[in-house]
C-alpha cells in the first residue's frame, strides 16, 4: 500500500545541510495499522510528509497504492492525495467554521452536491459520535472531540490511507484511549490502512500491528509489534519497550544472584497459546532441575498474551541443557543471561 525504496531527504538552508532521511526502506501492507516511533528529530514527520507528497524525496522512490509518486504529473498527484487523509497533533480545525462545515471542507472543495455533502457529513459525525455538535464551533469542544472532528474530516473524501502525525500527543491518557479505539474502528469498518507517527510506545502497543523504530533518519528496527516488544534488539528500541513492559531483573535480585553457585539464569519469552500453559511446572516435572522465578511480566499486545520471565535454573549441566531445549520445543524464546 505504501512503499519506500532507498529514500533520502536532505534539507539545505544556506550553509546548513540536514540529512533528515538516510536510505529508508519501508513497506506498509493494505489493512495495516503501522506505527513509526522515534525521539524528536528522528525524521518521523519528514517520512509522513513524503507519503502525501508535502515533500519530495531527494533520492529514492515513494510508492503509494502501486503508483510511484515521483513519476506522477501534478494533476495525477492531486487525485492521489485525495486517497490520503491526515490528522494532526493540534487538530488544524478552522475556528470560524462550525463542526459541520469543518468536516464538509474536502467535499466542498471537490464540488460535491449539497445534499450529498449533508448526508456524508452527518454520517461521519454519527460515526465519530458528534452528531449533536454539528452546529457548534471548535472552541466549544474538548481536545478529544476536536480530534474526532479531525478524523471525520479526514474520512470525508473516502481515503484509502489515513496518516496520523502525533494525533494523540496533546490528549490525556483516557482520551488517547478513546481516539485509538476510534482509529481501530476506522481501520476495520472502513478498511483504511493507517500510519501512526508517535513518540509513545503505549500508542503502538494499543493499536498497531507493525512498527518501525527511527533514529537519526534511519529505520533501526522493524517488525510485528509482538516480535519487537518481545525481543527488542537495538538499545533505542529497548528503551522504548521499557516504557510499557518492565523487562529486566530488579537490581536487588541481580545482587543476590552473584552469591548463588552454578545455577544459570535465562530470559524466557512466551507468546500466545503457550503463555496459558503451566510450562514452568512442566519443565520441572520433566527434568531433574529446580526453577526459581526471579521476575515475570505479562502483557497483552494485539490481543495476544506476551509473557517475559527470568528463570534461575539449578541442576546438572546436562539437565539444564535438556530443560532449555524442552522450553524451546514448546515455542519459548530462551536466552541465557550472563551474570
Ligand atoms: N523544512 C525543514 N527544513 C530544514 N530542516 C528540517 C525541515 N524539516 C525537518 N528538518 C530537520 O530534519 C530532521 C528531522 O525532522 P522531523 O521533523 O522529520 O523529525 P521528527 O522525528 O518528526 O521530530 P519531532 O517529533 O520533533 O517532530 C531534524 O533535524 C529537523 O531539524
Automatic annotation (TrEMBL):
Q: What family is this protein classified in? A: Belongs to the ABC transporter superfamily.
Annotated ABC transporter domain residues: 2-241
Protein name (record): Methionine import ATP-binding protein MetN
Q: Which UniProt keywords apply?
A: Amino-acid transport, ATP-binding, Cell membrane, Membrane, Nucleotide-binding, Translocase, Transport
Does the keyword field hold Translocase? Answer: yes
Gene3D superfamilies, from UniProt? Answer: 3.30.70.260, P-loop containing nucleotide triphosphate hydrolases (3.40.50.300)
Q: Which GO terms describe its cellular component?
A: plasma membrane
Share an example GO biological-process annotation for this protein. amino acid transport
Which GO molecular function annotations are given, in alphabetical order?
A: ATP binding; ATP hydrolysis activity
Under the heading CDD domains, the entry gives:
ABC_MetN_methionine_transporter (cd03258)
Task: Return the Pfam families for the record.
Answer: ABC_tran, NIL
Amino acid at each position: 500500500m505504501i512503499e519506500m525504496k532507498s529514500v533520502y531527504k536532505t534539507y539545505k538552508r544556506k550553509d546548513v545541510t540536514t540529512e533528515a532521511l538516510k536510505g529508508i526502506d519501508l513497506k506498509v501492507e493494505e489493512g495495516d495499522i503501522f506505527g513509526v516511533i522515534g525521539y524528536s528529530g528522528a525524521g518521523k514527520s519528514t517520512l509522513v510528509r513524503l507519503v502525501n507528497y508535502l515533500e519530495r524525496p531527494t533520492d529514492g522512490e515513494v510508492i503509494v497504492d502501486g503508483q510511484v509518486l515521483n513519476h506522477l504529473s501534478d494533476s495525477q498527484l492531486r487525485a492521489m492525495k485525495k486517497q490520503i487523509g491526515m490528522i494532526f497533533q493540534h487538530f488544524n480545525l478552522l475556528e470560524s467554521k462550525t463542526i459541520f462545515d469543518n468536516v464538509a471542507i474536502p467535499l466542498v472543495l471537490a464540488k460535491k452536491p449539497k445534499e450529498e455533502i449533508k448526508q456524508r457529513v452527518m454520517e461521519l459525525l454519527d460515526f465519530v459520535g458528534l452528531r449533536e455538535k454539528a452546529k457548534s464551533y471548535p472552541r466549544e469542544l474538548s481536545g478529544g472531540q476536536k480530534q474526532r472532528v479531525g478524523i471525520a474530516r479526514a474520512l470525508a473524501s473516502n481515503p484509502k490511507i489515513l496518516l496520523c502525525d502525533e494525533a494523540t500527543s496533546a490528549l490525556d491518557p483516557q482520551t488517547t484511549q478513546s481516539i485509538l479505539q476510534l482509529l481501530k474502528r476506522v481501520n476495520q469498518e472502513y478498511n483504511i490502512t493507517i500510519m501512526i507517527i508517535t513518540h509513545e510506545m503505549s500508542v503502538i502497543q494499543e493499536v498497531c500491528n507493525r512498527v518501525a523504530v527511527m533514529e537519526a533518519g534511519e529505520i533501526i528496527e522493524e517488525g510485528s509489534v509482538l516480535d519487537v516488544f518481545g525481543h527488542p534488539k537495538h538499545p533505542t528500541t529497548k528503551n522504548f519497550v521499557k516504557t510499557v513492559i518492565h523487562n529486566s531483573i530488579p537490581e536487588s535480585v541481580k545482587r543476590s544472584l552473584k552469591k548463588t553457585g552454578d545455577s544459570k539464569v535465562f530470559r524466557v519469552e512466551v507468546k500466545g497459546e503457550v503463555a496459558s500453559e503451566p510450562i514452568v511446572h512442566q519443565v520441572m516435572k520433566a527434568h531433574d532441575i529446580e526453577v526459581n522465578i526471579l521476575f515475570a511480566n505479562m502483557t497483552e499486545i494485539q490481543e495476544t498474551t506476551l509473557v517475559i520471565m527470568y528463570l534461575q535454573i539449578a541442576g546438572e549441566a546436562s539437565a539444564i541443557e535438556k530443560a532449555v531445549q524442552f522450553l524451546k520445543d514448546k515455542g519459548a524464546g530462551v536466552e541465557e543471561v550472563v551474570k
